[in-house]
Amino acid sequence: MNNQLSRSFYQNDIHSIAVDLLGCRLVRYIGKDSFLIGRIVETEAYKQKNDPASHSYKGKTKRNEVMFGEPGHLYVYFTYGMHFCCNVVCGPAGQGDAILIRALEPLEGIDEMMKRRFGQLSNKKAQYHNLTNGPAKLCKAFGIGRSENGLDLCGKNIWIEKETIYLSEQIGRSTRVGIKQGKEFPWRYYIKDNPWVSNTDKSVKIYEK
DNA sequence: CGTGAGATTTCCT
DNA sequence: GGAAATCTCACGT
Fold this sequence. Notes:
- By secondary structure, the protein is α+β, with helices and mostly antiparallel strands.
- It has one domain: Methylpurine-DNA glycosylase (MPG) (3-methyladenine DNA Glycosylase, Chain A, Roll), CATH 3.10.300.
- Helices cover 11% and strands 26% of the residues.
- It contains three helices and eight strands, in the order H-E-E-E-E-E-H-H-E-E-E.
- Strands 1, 2, 3, 4, 5, 6, 7 and 8 form an eight-stranded antiparallel beta sheet that branches.
- The longest helix has 9 residues.
- It is globular.
- The structure holds a DNA duplex.
């Protein structure tokens, strides 16, 4: 709680933030002194200007209006008829840039995450490594949906705490996942060799900070 | 392990 | 009307 990122963190350059978020803890308070906590291990940057893959590219609409609001808020979108994914709004207010959180390493509240993600099922798909290794999976595990859209990360429901990556870890960089336009931009960042990074790209480029 | 199709709704053209 | 910043299951190797 004392390391909670403040508004000014989110007003920086989007690529610096996407890198700095790696290793940080995403926290949700679920009552009774209980928390869901995951370490951010994969992010993607989306920009309003000249980035056709971004939801904000064509300007403000009802769906993406949170992206054009104040930084440090959560932009949650619904896609493929069934999934939610969450972003952190970044840059100066009104700019329309955001960072997609693509994967987490579960740290605390794991039983609660399991319950949200898999229900009461105890079959073999309910596995630890499958809990939060994708943008829609982590939203399910954290109970993030329509009603969390627009939520202020400088509040007391969901927030991010500052942490750095370990000395033994390297940052990988690649093109973004699952898009048709803007494919060429290497704006995906992840902690190399972390088991929870989504498995769709085997790029091995190392990002030098 | 890799590939392919289906699920299912919202938003914008 | 069609695509979408995805995931899961089934099936073939």
